[in-house]
């Protein structure tokens, strides 16, 4: 086991060395007058809404699909993933996802959010190339909420079947080894899929396909839930019935996702594409 972990660490280091060599000279800075207050306010709102989709939205949604004795444990999975991924994203995840680096992985120029400066004396603030009208700190937080909800989506595939400690280890490794590279491929500057014209307006590739494949593999590996609705007396056991109220509330919370995800399109593709109109139209379809 130790030899396998050592080999994995060596491979990651070998992958990171050329990335460090290609790191840019310094952060991109913009004048305060370039920052758009409307864009910034809407991105902050959307950041809060996407986070709201995970806690309590996804937590309640999955909590209503498990046996009553496991509701609290299922809720805490989403809360724990939120805390863990937040730290990982600020330390290294954002830097490897949304900096130039190579076509396959970013560099470490934003390690521990280094270079994400706010210079009041010179009236300059760090911005990201994909979102030049908002501070990079806002862009980082918005992308962080997607990094949080993606591994949280996977938990539904192994509900009631994984220890809490194993969940934390799996989430940390999967986020860094799977989500971060795929996010750079599709959304990051210079990502090889982005350069080939792949468009992902709302996380269909990075979030849904990514989490769906991981969830399917987890379900196949871990198998069915032990004792769930088995035996002749299963229907008479009150503990076996999911909490439909939690499930319904969680589903209603997640209906507002279109308002947030249309931000990604405006963030990357500018302001002249009637993004707001498309976003509200999609939200209307969701409500119907």
Question: What does this 3D model show about the protein?
Answer:
The chain is built from 10 helices and 3 strands, in the order αβααββααααααα. It has a single domain (24-226, 237-287), classed as Ammonium transporter AmtB like domains (Ammonium transporter fold, Orthogonal Bundle), CATH 1.10.3430.10. The chain starts with a helix and ends with a helix. It is 61% helix and 3% strand. It is an all-alpha fold and 288 residues long. The longest helix has 28 residues, at 71-98. Strands 1-3-2 form a 3-stranded antiparallel β-sheet, with no helix packed on it. α2 packs antiparallel against α9 (257-269) and α3 packs parallel to α5. The chain has helices spanning 2-21, 37-63, 71-98, 136-154, 164-186, 192-195, 204-222, 244-253, 257-269, 275-287; strands at 29-31, 118-119, 124-126.
User: In percent terms, what proportion of residues is strand?
Assistant: under 5%
Write down the secondary-structure element order. HEHHEEHHHHHHH
Helix/strand/pairing class, anyone?
A: mainly alpha
Tally of domains: 1
Give the biggest sheet.
3 strands, antiparallel
Radius of gyration using CA atoms only: 21 Å
- Quantity of strands, as a count: 3
